[in-house]
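Thread: "does anyone have the structure for this chain?"

Original post by V.I.:
We have the sequence but no experimental structure in hand. Need at least a predicted one for the grant figures.
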Amino acid sequence: MTRQSGAVTRHMLDYVRDNGPVSYTDLNMEYYFYQGGKDYDPVRDRGGSYSHHHGQLQTRRSRRIKASPLVHSEWIEKTRDGKYRYRYYGEI
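Reply from O.Q.:
Generated one for you, tokens below.
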């Protein structure tokens, strides 16, 4: 399955925005399922390629909203309770 550039990042940001606050395990599990995984095991499936995406999600970046000309900054942020929340700057 070929995905458009940025599709994983967009999906994961939308997931946190719609379901937050979420744990790292929740994020890893959602990524695994998004990539076509069927039987998630929290020990067997930790690590892997999600950790590379995780760093990008925590970086505040300007991102385009779908096909809209609007651009805003968005990222996920770990809070004191250890969960990740969606953050943005600009209009949505």
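V.I.: this helps a lot. The chain has a mean pLDDT of 83.
O.Q.: and The helical segments are 7-19, 24-34, 50-57.
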